[in-house]
Amino acid sequence: MGIAVVVGGGCSGVLATRELLRTGWHVVLVDPGARPGRGLAYSTADPWHLLNSPAAAMSADPDRPDDFLRWCRQRDPRTGPADFVPRSWYGDYLTEVLRAADETAQGRLTVQRGRVARIFEPSVNGGPLTVLLTDDVVIPADRVVLALGHPAPSAPARLDAAAARSGAYVADPWRPGALAGLPEGPILLIGTGLTAVDVALTLANAGRRDLTAVSRHGLLPQPHRRPAAASATAPGGPAAAAQAGPAQVTAAQTVAALPELLAAGSVAGLLRSLRRLAADTGDWRAVFDALRPHWDALWQSLPEPGQRRFLRHLARYWEVHRHRMAPAVADGIGALRESGSLRVRAAELCGIEAADEGVRVVLRERHGGAITAPTFAAVVNCTGPGRIVESDPLVRALVAEGMARPGPYRLGLDTDPHGALLRRDGSAHPALWTLGPTRRGVLWETTAAPEIRTQARALAVALGDAGRDRAPVAECVES
Length: 479
Ligand SMILES: Cc1cc2nc3c(=O)[nH]c(=O)nc-3n(C[C@H](O)[C@H](O)[C@H](O)COP(=O)(O)OP(=O)(O)OC[C@H]3O[C@@H](n4cnc5c(N)ncnc54)[C@H](O)[C@@H]3O)c2cc1C
Fold this sequence. Notes:
The chain is of the alpha/beta class. It contains 17 helices and 17 strands. The chain has helices at residues 11-22, 67-75, 87-105, 161-165, 194-205, 237-243, 246-256, 258-263, 267-281, 284-291, 295-301, 304-322, 327-338, 388-391, 393-400, 449-463, 473-478, and strands at 3-7, 26-31, 109-113, 116-120, 129-133, 138-141, 143-146, 169-170, 187-190, 211-215, 342-355, 358-365, 371-372, 375-376, 378-381, 420-422, 428-434.
């Protein structure tokens, strides 16, 4: 029976494991955490950290789109399909998904606590890959699936070494306990996206009242539409309920406009068509939601200069419209801004230097260009996940050895359409695969649960039935 090692036990790792067990593989799931299934997004226990997708969208099971909603209703029967539940619920759900998969697989799942340091090609013809953990545990593997998820944020370019070393700078707000015990006084959040929103709520709930969030554009994520009271009982099941009414009409209009969008061929043309569609339908949210399954095709339809232009000029606007805040989260942020506890500034970071009492930050205002240099008691890097190709030692080693290569714009790793890693020479590696955020760049929509569950199913299909048509590694390497 084939052995597949899944590296990483977040949402991607759990969903890949579930699918590989279904197709007969023996799976070794390796993750450093004590509670596989949660990963970065769902480890939080804070009740104000809500999912940014409605419950109806978050099933782990492609065959049962309402699986998560049903699970939620066991916990709270009032949960509607358009409700935004705490992220910790989703962590509990994924833990349950893994437990159920383990039970069905009858001894074919091993969960190994640890961190993979290196992966080596077979040393003898026909042999397995060797997976080496940092504590020297060695696991032979017929296939390896990298489910590495999100790396820690990259350091801001203008951060000086003394400031980085000072206790006043938080390099990674997701590290457990990172926000506890920050010095008294004003706090600067670098970034105004969903990470900054999470951090602002956590700090405010800890009683901090002097928060500033800064980014070049000063744009906060847009809020989701508030769930309609009737949605829970709308006919046609939860997915229909979440889409019912005018949104459904907009979705149909959007899909009808796809050929035009795909033919746009340039960022300006795409933007023009999108604006027109949003104006004609009067519901940009429904346009964005309907386009979601088609964004990869739209991304891939742009020639390289268009993709670069999109990344430089449009990606931030796309992010704030696509990755929206739950209504209750938007209310919380709105209240903080109204009370003056949270200020949002559009400014460029020109320097972050250690000061006597904290950190001095040089800011150039976006409009008007005025330069200020306020001092903050603490600075928290809320720029979101960094770039895995630069920051992850396992990925760096794979790239150095030619077993993998960076994907477009170094946003992730290069893969074939099924998720097999592309080697330095561009050929698909027969035994090394990936899914989720590591595929960013090849794909555009690849970080959220609906895309991950689809990729996990496709990956298991591509790897084949472990007991039936598994090709030995060496045979594949030679082919
Ligand atoms: C704050 C936040 C909120 C989000 N909210 C939503 C949401 O509401 N809805 C939605 O659909 N999506 C949401 N997302 C998107 C999210 O990317 C996916 O839903 C999903 O959590 C990604 O899971 P992952 O397993 O790929 O990554 P991660 O959660 O980052 O998990 C990767 C795991 O791999 C482990 N790992 C890494 N390297 C190694 C190694 N060398 N050896 C062993 N283990 C390793 C890590 O320790 C980690 O446990 C959110 C993301 C963030 C950051």
